[in-house]
What does this fold into?
Amino acid sequence: MTKESSELHATVNADGAIILDIRNGKISTLNSTGAYIWEALKRGEDMDTVIAALAIETGVQAETVGRDVREFVETLKENQLLVR
It folds into this structure.
């Protein structure tokens, strides 16, 4: 399961999210879709559930959404904004 690091503080609203990484003194921003994914993962939803919901909501094929979501999650992990 992927979860938020305990050294991160996030503020999420309809426009997106701002994430403060206390350990590294870094601030990151997410657009509204990124914030949706972030919140869903924090709630414990698996990636397949997130992908299916986004595909329905956007009307984009699940295969395309899946590729984008997985890439986004890997970027969050690389930036130490999500931990395994």
Q: What stands out?
A: Helices lie at 32-42, 47-58, 62-78. The chain has a mean pLDDT of 90. Residues 72 and 78 are 10 Å apart (CA to CA).
